[in-house]
Amino acid sequence: MKCPYCGDLNTQVVDTRLNDEEDTVRRRRRCIACDKRFTTYERVELQMPAVVKKNGSRTEFSRDKLKASFMLALRKRPVMTENIDAALDRVVDKIVTSGEREITSDRIGDLVMRELRKLDTVAYVRFASVYRNFADLDEFSDVIREVKTPRAPKPAGNGKAGKKPK
What we know:
The chain is α+β, with helices and mostly antiparallel strands. It contains five helices and six strands. Helix 1 packs across helix 4, helix 3 runs antiparallel to helix 4 and helix 4 runs antiparallel to helix 5.
């Protein structure tokens, strides 16, 4: 760490403490060259990717907008707030851990649809009707059939179901 007084790079950490929320580390440092003390703070800075909209424009990612989309689709549906928050966290986590600098609004929509399908089929259909911008009633009917058709269960174990040992 560079000393703010003399510019020397040789500093020593004297004391380290977490703040009350435990999301910031406070360090007292001492410059070896000039013997002056100073404080530094460390905190995690998550860089959210920019959202590329369908028209090509870019905007900042907004968790509030994402939550508003969830809440609109889930309006008057019997889904617990904890489940909504957990689904929202999973979507944000997938976006953050992707490591991408940009993400398309289509990709975010797909992530939201996947989570809504797990939470509530009516909310899923509501969101899909807006997100996919249905051109006619047949497309809407396809989504209804998709929801009605039970998904095939994933095979248990090591994925070698049905194979006999030699």
